[in-house]
Amino acid sequence: MSEISSFCVGSCGIRASWSSAYPTASATSSASYVCTTPTPGVCDVNYPPYAINNVKGPLAVAAISPNVTHADGTLEYDMYNLWGHGILKATYNALSAISPGVRPFILGRLIFAGSGSYTAHWGGDNWSNWLSMIFSIPNHNIIGAISQEVYRWSSVIDASKTAMAIRYQLLPYMYTLFYHAYTKAETVMRALAWEFPYDLSLANADRQFMLANTTIPAPLGHIPVYARGGSVLPLQQAALTTRDVRNSPWDILVVLAKDGSATGKLYLDDGVSVTPDATLYAEFKVENRKLETIIEYGGWVEENSLRNVTIWGVEKTKSLIKFNGKVVPAKNVHFNGDKYTLVISLSSASAWTGNGWSLEW
């Protein structure tokens, strides 16, 4: 919790109430905040001349009053977010000193420009409703509200298990997206209007989003996830922890475009090192009913096996399915012509090794 909070208004020593601690701001005041010394009726930082959406009311409620003066004379108004940034940076440096070379994982509520170098941002208090879910995940308890953990309601338990299982399966894909964000400044989550700027019907579509340009999670009660045609998604098995997911077999989901093509990427490293000793970057390419996995670079040795390749949009298959030129046993091939789905079970010793692998159907 990097945000300084106060559960009293004014001096906590005397438990002053709002009405006794501060006067009511004048709605017609034209006083400017641009001044160096707070002066009653001239410059009151507790009531700045612009609107701010503080759900608690005036700025001094549930937080340190903006007119509090620090030891060097600086007002809390000017230091509020900087303090949050500073404590997060200090936490990052402390964790780095305790575990050298290991990435610290920090969630910060109070941040400032540049805080993203040290922490992820938590949005703060929210409610268990669809409006809050648009912005965050509503499972946080606050004073005066009913408990909101997902295990409080059986229906929510089932829905949450399903949604979290999908999220864990998508972790390798999302990890690759964050790698692209770091190396190419690409976005991980995108509004539909960003991806389809000429479709005016999507200009105000703010109830769903895309993960890069491939998948669309849509919050419609059961949270379906749509995969875009022309995509190849690397997946692993759902588990209770990210470590268990990372140590599970691999699945590949191929979603063919109308012309039968598809592409995808995968980045891997040890997942914990600030500067990994070994990495791997692979490219997926589908043309003419053949999936090729090309290891573009990296010396990462993957110990987890390749379990299944699932292909959506298959209208027909060859009489023999081949993996790296060798025929796959018929018992390991499952084709559903009604749903245009082909599932191929494999037992590759390693999913990513050598120069890659190929699959023909």
UniProtKB/TrEMBL annotation:
It catalyses: Hydrolysis of terminal, non-reducing (1->4)-linked alpha-D-glucose residues with release of alpha-D-glucose. Gene3D superfamilies: Glycosidases, Golgi alpha-mannosidase II. Keywords: Glycosidase, Hydrolase. Residues 1-138, 139-177 form the Glycoside hydrolase family 31 TIM barrel domain. GO terms for molecular function: alpha-1,4-glucosidase activity. It is an enzyme of class 3 (hydrolase). Pfam families: Glyco_hydro_31_2nd (PF01055). Its EC number is 3.2.1.20. GO terms for biological process: carbohydrate metabolic process. The keyword Hydrolase applies. InterPro entries: GH, Glyco_hydro_31_TIM, Glyco_hydro_b. Belongs to the glycosyl hydrolase 31 family. This is alpha-glucosidase. The lineage of its organism: Eukaryota, Fungi, Dikarya, Ascomycota, Pezizomycotina.
